[in-house]
Fold these 3 entries.
Entry 1:
Amino acid sequence: MTSEPLRCLVTGATGYIGGRLAPILIERGHRVRAMARTPAKLDDVSWRDRAEVVRGDLTDPGSLATAFDGVDVVYYLVHSMGTSKDFVAEEAASARNVVAAAERAGVRRLVYLSGLHPAGAPLSRHLASRVEVGEILIDSGIEAVVLQAGIVIGSGSASFEMVRHLTDRLPVMTAPKWVHNRIQPIAIDDVLHYLAEAATAAVPASRTWDVGGPDVLRYGEAMQVYADVAGLRRRWIVVLPWLTPTIASWWVGLVTPIPSGLARPLVESLECDAVMGEHDIDAVIPAPAGGATGYRDAVTAALRSDGTAAGHGRKHLLRFSSVAPQ
């Protein structure tokens, strides 16, 4: 792709990732068109006067023609998890709608944020759906960059908020066996770096690339590191192997403010390791300046961003969206 400014369409612009990516693309000199089901939700964002805002719904093919017209790069950042009873079928249909609209508009590249997962292992509905969407985009014939990330560490990220609230509220907890599973978290700023670079990166072919931070740790360890950064005492975790995803998601819904429709898919996805299987992303996209952010530093930055500090009480307003990174 050229290094010249591009016309970028950011779908899911009211979501956690899309709302943070749009101003970065603008700062890089790209022309940004932000798409949302309800454009009025973008009326008060700081970058509103520097972007074109359009209405569009990936489940409604007729609404996409205007949004996709004249666009070079489409960022696919919409997920139906937590908003649809059958999000797997809806996401597959949405992906096909995106491909059809992109083909008609002559879009040059599709960029999608998927999830880390082990090769050849049974996957949760959430992860399997992300894999399917990525495959639909890759098989489209349009150049596709599919970035696969694990737990995103940032204030407002659903996965980080699950770590935060479980650790904050439960000094002693019974937990499912997935607290022993390995994860490779990535800081929100690093995810945004890879996404922004994906607009112009020279890629050899349409495919997936794994992205992650430098630290691989157990989910339970991630909770203990969070507790330490937040100034909390070490948490006592008693593992109960018989806790099913259904029971565990009910437990998460009870202890945290995460909606049940979002909690269940997130919990199911923790049943397998989420670590990088490939490490060649730096061959096409350079690492963030100074290197990828470590987990402890990412947690520290997340707490600072919403005004929290170690040893002090917290009042935190969650901003969950239709885009829920792992």
Note: Residues 7-150+186-210 form a domain with the Rossmann fold fold (CATH 3.40.50.720).
Entry 2:
Amino acid sequence: MPHQHAVRVYYEDTDLAGIVYYANYLKFIERARSEWVASLGIDQMALRASQGIVFAVRRLEADFLRPAKFGDDLVVETTLQSLGGARLVLEQVVLRGGERLFVAVVTLVCLTDDGHAARMPAELRARLAGQVH
């Protein structure tokens, strides 16, 4: 089952035409990813402090299907599609009342503090493995 995160569109999220400015979808899905990780009991700050690793976006494919507008109540669904040793691939969909407005496939990688790829700790990988759909 996808993780769901609610988002309300505020005036500051829109452009002159009253529709969501395209870059704000990236903010919406970033917040939803952070909430998804937290819902799994993963503390990203503790992970960085104890293991010296962080998640970073490596690749993003995005399709803008329909515009969201000022005042809309949206839901961002996050689904883990695949899991590798140092990489996660997520699908994130922004919905308005079940209608797909935006779809992104996001590849995340684990990095060390100096920016090099790192394998996920076994405990973290095991926790994520149960989320693959």
Note: The chain has one domain: 3-129.
Entry 3:
Amino acid sequence: MKNKYLISGLALFAILSCKTPLNIAKVQTEKNISISQDLPEDQNFNTIIAPYKQELEGKMNTKISHTSVDLTKSGDDSNLGNLLADYTFEGADDWARKNGIPGGVDGAVINIGGIRTTIAAGDILTRQIYEVMPFENEVMIMKMKGSDMQGLFDYYLKTQKNNPVSHIVIETDHDKITTKLINGKPLDPTKTYYIATSDYLAFGGDNMDYFKKGEMIATGIKLRDLFLEKFIANPEVKVPTDRRLNFKNKKNKTDE
């Protein structure tokens, strides 16, 4: 079926922008133009964009790393989720130490829904990182009171969702939190924590409202750019194997 778009720009512009009484008699509407797949290609246009298209495709198909195993997003401790959470931690930690936070960041949280696909074993190409992270999300650092960080653990207890974390350990059993560690130490309500995350989550996305209690520090780092940088720096991916999320007696699966 042909898709038709009504082009009447002159009339619409006159109606919306005119500040004086509109004289309808003087308004001229443009001819309707039907746009469909049957229209012939503009060869001049194709010739102009061909070199740019070829260059872009070359960059997108460039090998940047390699993985010996499938990188997936399934399970409470998905290997791709944990890997990207670690990359988020490392990028934010490096930025923090260079920008007035001597101790760096204490942990990282990203959302599994923001990881849009998986990476099969073999060579990793640039385009695959764009497919994994197609959004323009930015790395944020949340300055949090220790007492407010309890909200993070309560969130995981309630949702038991496999949103990846780095340098954070959460274990639950039925309706109780049995372990809550940040950077290898028990949660300290009197301590100030710096947690790396995305701007989406920093604003309370995915119902992470506890982040709204913190102070937001923008890094200017795009998550996708950071992931590209990290894969390039690691020509052979080392998959994290440590346990971070452990929901014992889990009743409802919420993996994405």
Note: The chain has two domains: 4-60, 71-248.
